[in-house]
Protein backbone atom coordinates (compact mmCIF):
# COMPACT_ATOMS: atom_id res chain seq x y z
CA UNK A 1 0.00 0.00 0.00
CA UNK A 2 1.45 3.34 -1.05
CA UNK A 3 1.74 6.15 1.41
CA UNK A 4 -1.10 8.64 1.12
CA UNK A 5 0.20 12.21 0.86
CA UNK A 6 -0.87 14.48 3.69
CA UNK A 7 -3.49 17.01 2.66
CA UNK A 8 -5.30 19.64 4.67
CA UNK A 9 -7.72 22.03 2.99
CA UNK A 10 -10.54 24.24 4.10
CA UNK A 11 -13.61 23.41 2.03
CA UNK A 12 -16.22 25.69 3.57
CA UNK A 13 -16.76 28.06 6.50
CA UNK A 14 -20.29 28.59 7.77
CA UNK A 15 -22.26 29.88 10.72
CA UNK A 16 -23.94 26.82 12.26
CA UNK A 17 -25.87 28.61 15.00
CA UNK A 18 -25.93 31.97 16.77
CA UNK A 19 -27.99 33.71 19.42
CA UNK A 20 -28.16 37.01 21.22
CA UNK A 21 -29.98 37.64 24.47
CA UNK A 22 -30.34 41.10 25.94
CA UNK A 23 -32.44 40.46 29.07
CA UNK A 24 -31.92 43.91 30.57
CA UNK A 25 -32.86 45.99 27.55
CA UNK A 26 -33.96 48.68 27.14
CA UNK A 27 -33.01 49.81 30.66
CA UNK A 28 -29.39 48.74 30.13
CA UNK A 29 -28.99 51.50 27.55
CA UNK A 30 -29.56 54.13 30.26
CA UNK A 31 -26.52 52.94 32.27
CA UNK A 32 -22.80 53.45 31.77
CA UNK A 33 -21.40 50.53 29.76
CA UNK A 34 -18.63 49.04 31.89
CA UNK A 35 -19.52 45.35 32.09
CA UNK A 36 -17.51 42.35 33.24
CA UNK A 37 -17.06 39.96 30.34
CA UNK A 38 -16.69 36.21 30.47
CA UNK A 39 -15.73 34.27 27.34
CA UNK A 40 -16.01 30.50 27.03
CA UNK A 41 -14.60 28.58 24.08
CA UNK A 42 -15.32 25.03 23.05
CA UNK A 43 -14.43 22.98 20.00
CA UNK A 44 -15.78 19.72 18.74
CA UNK A 45 -15.27 17.77 15.58
CA UNK A 46 -16.80 14.90 13.74
CA UNK A 47 -15.84 12.76 10.79
CA UNK A 48 -18.42 13.48 8.06
CA UNK A 49 -17.30 11.36 5.12
CA UNK A 50 -14.13 10.01 3.61
CA UNK A 51 -11.54 12.78 4.01
CA UNK A 52 -14.11 15.28 5.42
CA UNK A 53 -14.27 16.57 8.98
CA UNK A 54 -16.56 19.19 10.47
CA UNK A 55 -15.09 21.35 13.23
CA UNK A 56 -17.33 23.61 15.29
CA UNK A 57 -15.91 26.43 17.41
CA UNK A 58 -18.41 27.68 19.98
CA UNK A 59 -17.81 31.11 21.50
CA UNK A 60 -20.05 32.14 24.38
CA UNK A 61 -19.77 35.72 25.63
CA UNK A 62 -21.54 36.80 28.80
CA UNK A 63 -21.58 40.42 30.00
CA UNK A 64 -22.61 41.36 33.53
CA UNK A 65 -23.23 44.80 34.92
CA UNK A 66 -23.87 45.23 38.65
CA UNK A 67 -24.11 41.42 39.03
CA UNK A 68 -26.88 41.26 36.43
CA UNK A 69 -26.54 39.41 33.15
CA UNK A 70 -27.11 42.05 30.48
CA UNK A 71 -25.81 40.37 27.33
CA UNK A 72 -25.35 36.79 26.18
CA UNK A 73 -24.00 35.96 22.74
CA UNK A 74 -23.30 32.47 21.49
CA UNK A 75 -21.82 31.71 18.09
CA UNK A 76 -21.13 28.30 16.59
CA UNK A 77 -18.70 28.92 13.75
CA UNK A 78 -18.12 25.78 11.72
CA UNK A 79 -15.85 24.61 8.97
CA UNK A 80 -15.67 21.65 6.68
CA UNK A 81 -12.10 20.45 6.22
CA UNK A 82 -10.62 17.94 3.77
CA UNK A 83 -7.99 15.96 5.64
CA UNK A 84 -6.16 12.95 4.23
CA UNK A 85 -3.08 11.04 5.29
CA UNK A 86 -3.13 12.54 8.80
CA UNK A 87 -4.08 10.19 11.63
CA UNK A 88 -3.89 9.57 15.36
CA UNK A 89 -2.50 12.29 17.61
CA UNK A 90 -1.52 14.45 14.65
CA UNK A 91 -5.12 14.44 13.43
CA UNK A 92 -6.32 15.39 16.93
CA UNK A 93 -3.91 18.33 16.90
CA UNK A 94 -5.05 19.48 13.46
CA UNK A 95 -8.72 19.30 14.54
CA UNK A 96 -8.06 20.91 17.94
CA UNK A 97 -5.52 23.58 16.98
CA UNK A 98 -5.24 24.36 13.26
CA UNK A 99 -8.96 24.24 12.47
CA UNK A 100 -10.10 26.47 15.38
CA UNK A 101 -7.30 28.92 14.49
CA UNK A 102 -8.84 29.27 11.03
CA UNK A 103 -12.40 29.58 12.37
CA UNK A 104 -11.75 32.07 15.18
CA UNK A 105 -11.56 35.27 13.09
CA UNK A 106 -14.97 34.48 11.62
CA UNK A 107 -16.44 33.72 15.05
CA UNK A 108 -14.92 36.94 16.40
CA UNK A 109 -16.54 38.96 13.61
CA UNK A 110 -19.91 37.26 14.21
CA UNK A 111 -19.79 38.08 17.95
CA UNK A 112 -18.94 41.73 17.20
CA UNK A 113 -21.69 41.96 14.61
CA UNK A 114 -24.31 40.50 16.96
CA UNK A 115 -23.28 42.90 19.73
CA UNK A 116 -23.65 45.85 17.38
CA UNK A 117 -27.02 44.63 16.10
CA UNK A 118 -28.15 44.36 19.72
CA UNK A 119 -27.33 48.04 20.29
CA UNK A 120 -24.09 47.41 22.19
CA UNK A 121 -20.52 48.46 21.40
CA UNK A 122 -18.35 46.00 19.45
CA UNK A 123 -16.71 43.48 21.74
CA UNK A 124 -13.28 42.94 20.16
CA UNK A 125 -12.38 39.48 21.41
CA UNK A 126 -8.67 39.00 22.03
CA UNK A 127 -6.66 36.45 20.02
CA UNK A 128 -6.69 32.92 21.40
CA UNK A 129 -3.81 30.45 21.73
CA UNK A 130 -5.60 27.25 20.70
CA UNK A 131 -2.41 25.22 21.06
CA UNK A 132 -2.17 26.12 24.75
CA UNK A 133 -5.88 25.36 25.25
CA UNK A 134 -5.47 22.01 23.48
CA UNK A 135 -2.45 21.06 25.61
CA UNK A 136 -4.28 22.05 28.82
CA UNK A 137 -7.33 19.98 27.83
CA UNK A 138 -5.03 17.00 27.18
CA UNK A 139 -3.45 17.39 30.65
CA UNK A 140 -6.87 17.57 32.30
CA UNK A 141 -8.07 14.48 30.43
CA UNK A 142 -4.95 12.57 31.48
CA UNK A 143 -5.40 13.66 35.11
CA UNK A 144 -9.05 12.58 35.08
CA UNK A 145 -8.13 9.23 33.57
CA UNK A 146 -5.44 8.69 36.19
CA UNK A 147 -7.63 9.76 39.14
CA UNK A 148 -10.03 6.76 39.09
CA UNK A 149 -7.08 4.37 38.73
CA UNK A 150 -5.40 5.97 41.74
CA UNK A 151 -8.54 5.74 43.88
CA UNK A 152 -9.10 2.10 42.86
CA UNK A 153 -5.54 1.29 43.91
CA UNK A 154 -6.24 2.63 47.44
CA UNK A 155 -9.08 0.17 48.06
UniProtKB/TrEMBL annotation:
Biological process, per Gene Ontology: protein folding; protein tetramerization; protein transport
| One Pfam family cited in the UniProt record for this chain | SecB
Q: Which UniProt keywords apply?
A: Chaperone, Cytoplasm, Protein transport, Translocation, Transport
Q: What is its main location?
A: cytoplasm
InterPro entries reported in the protein's UniProt record: SecB, SecB-like_sf
Instruction: Provide a Gene Ontology MF annotation, just one.
Output: unfolded protein binding
Subcellular locations according to the entry: Cytoplasm
Task: Indicate whether Transcription regulation appears among the record's keywords.
Answer: no
Q: Which Gene3D superfamilies match?
A: SecB-like (3.10.420.10)
Database matches in SUPFAM superfamilies: SecB-like
Quote the cellular component terms of the Gene Ontology held in the record. cytoplasm
Transmembrane ranges, per UniProt, are none
Say if the entry is tagged with keyword Protein transport. Answer: yes
Q: Which family does it belong to?
A: Belongs to the SecB family.
| Described function | One of the proteins required for the normal export of preproteins out of the cell cytoplasm. It is a molecular chaperone that binds to a subset of precursor proteins, maintaining them in a translocation-competent state. It also specifically binds to its receptor SecA.
Q: How does it assemble?
A: Homotetramer, a dimer of dimers. One homotetramer interacts with 1 SecA dimer.
Protein name in UniProt: Protein-export protein SecB
What species is this protein from? Litorivivens lipolytica
Amino acid sequence: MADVPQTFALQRIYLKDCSLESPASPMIFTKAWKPKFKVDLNTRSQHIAEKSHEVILTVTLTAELDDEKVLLIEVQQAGLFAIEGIEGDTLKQVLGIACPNLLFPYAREAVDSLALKGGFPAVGLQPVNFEALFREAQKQAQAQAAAPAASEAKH
